[in-house]
Amino acid sequence: AGLELHFPGVFILSEESVSQGGEPSNNFFLVDPLDGTKEFLKRNDEFTVNIALIKNGQPVAGVVLAPALDELFYAAKGLGAWKRDRQGLCAICSGIYAEGQPLRVMGSRSHGGDKLAAWLAKLPHEHTFVAAGSSLKFCRIAENMADIYPRFGLTSQWDTAAAQCVLEVAGGAVTDLECQPLQYGLQRPLLNPEFVAV
């Protein structure tokens, strides 16, 4: 309702509903009002609210709010990526993997399974593995707390778009397994292909 009020005429696709106003087009909002439902039910605080503005298949603005952690990540193409928490507001920038250091791998607390285990077993680098919930995995890479997040398994457009924007604006990338950027659109399948965020 808040998006409809402040952006009249812009179509909104949410996991829970579709806006009453606005004509479906190449420019629209993608909203996930509760990303990380399993994390929410487990009460581990790693759930988020995700809002992304999509233009011509790409997320150009994104907001990721982790209300229980009091963390807000947001970004827009050309304007930078930011984090606001109890310490205040700061710009964020993903780092460059330091050769010789263990690769910091992010993964899901609730998904992954055999495919992820097989991928980790084939890594040619020493690595550490950190589990996290929801779209926070992208944000941890964006703030240089991790290096890579391989995702094997289903996600939907609204699960990834906002955090992809935060990570890309911070200097990272999100690609499918053919090294093509994830694409978004009302005419595209709602389910994403498997991907890697770095």
Description:
It contains five helices and twelve strands. By secondary structure, it is α+β, with helices and mostly antiparallel strands. Helix content is 21%, strand content 34%. It has helices at 2-6, 37-42, 113-122, 136-142, 157-169; strands at residues 11-14, 27-35, 48-55, 58-66, 71-76, 80-85, 88-91, 103-108, 127-132, 149-151, 174-176, 195-197.
Which features does this protein show?
single chain; 198 residues; alpha+beta; seven-stranded mixed beta sheet; three-stranded antiparallel beta sheet; globular
Q: Can you write the helix and strand succession as a string?
A: HEEHEEEEEEHEHEHEE
Mean pLDDT: 91
Helix content estimate: 10-25%
Helix/strand-derived category reads alpha+beta
How are the strands of the largest sheet arranged?
Answer: 1-2-3-4-5-6-7
Distance between the termini: 34 Å
Low-confidence stretches: none
Share of residues in strands: 25-35%
* Number of beta-strand segments: 12
Largest sheet: 7 strands, mixed
In short:
The chain is of the alpha+beta class and 198 residues long. It has helices at 2-6, 37-42, 113-122, 136-142, 157-169; strands at 11-14, 27-35, 48-55, 58-66, 71-76, 80-85, 88-91, 103-108, 127-132, 149-151, 174-176, 195-197.
Topology (SSEs and partners):
Elements: H1 2-6, E1 11-14, E2 27-35, H2 37-42, E3 48-55, E4 58-66, E5 71-76, E6 80-85, E7 88-91, E8 103-108, H3 113-122, E9 127-132, H4 136-142, E10 149-151, H5 157-169, E11 174-176, E12 195-197
Helix pairs in contact: 4-5
